[in-house]
Write a structure and sequence with these properties.
The chain has about 190 residues and is α+β, with helices and mostly antiparallel strands. It is built from 3 helices and 9 strands, in the order ααβββββββαββ. The structure holds zinc ion.
């Protein structure tokens, strides 16, 4: 009798491996990625949240640029969202600064919890493993706090580069000699 081989799609294999195989740590980066990431982070950037995801889908403005990665790492820092490939060295799949993010949707009641991050003209859909659901409980709060905090910091640092003309009240670059609006001479 001729037997038709049953081919299991790759993503199902990965999922099976991740959920049934040796219990893997879903929240702690492997040391090689951790080290690589440390070199990638900016000054004063700290990692707030790390969770292995089952699938990360990037929907780009051009369909050709869109991409999907299975079994990657979802990371929230105090400045951005990073998605790392789960390889032996640091490979960044997505780098989404908070100031580029319009909003995020949370679908935590799905079998595989999902976050959708909407930026100006792109979208990222991150699906976590059903095993990871207990790690997702506070994700909305963590995400929002980081986002608000980053926006506050951006405001303060922008404020540091500007000042107000005492004559007309216009916002002008700090250390200006004259107001660009009213021509008032400014004493530093
Ligand atoms: Zn002025």
């Amino acid at each position: 009798m001729f037997k038709i081989p049953i081919v299991t799609p790759l993503h199902k294999l990965i999922k099976r491996y991740l959920s049934n195989g040796e219990k893997q740590n879903l929240t702690e980066l492997p040391s090689n990625l951790k080290n690589g990431l440390e070199g990638y982070l900016k000054q004063e950037e700290v990692v707030i949240f790390t969770l292995r995801n089952y699938r990360a889908m990037y929907i780009a403005p051009r369909w050709l640029d869109s991409n999907t990665f299975f079994n990657s790492w979802f990371i929230i820092t105090n400045q951005r969202i990073l998605i790392l490939r789960n390889s032996s060295s640091l490979k960044i799949f997505r780098d989404i600064p908070f100031d580029d993010i319009h909003r995020a949707n949370y679908e935590m009641n799905r079998l595989e919890p999902r976050i959708t991050i909407i930026s100006s003209d792109k979208e990222d859909r991150i699906d976590f493993l059903s095993d990871a659901i207990r790690h997702c409980e506070n994700i909305e709060e963590i995400f929002n706090n980081a986002l608000v905090d980053a926006r506050e910091r951006a405001k303060t640092s922008a404020a540091g580069d500007t000042m107000f003309c005492f004559n007309c009240g216009s916002k002008i670059p700090r250390k200006s000699k004259f107001c660009s609006e009213c021509g008032q001479e400014l004493i530093q």
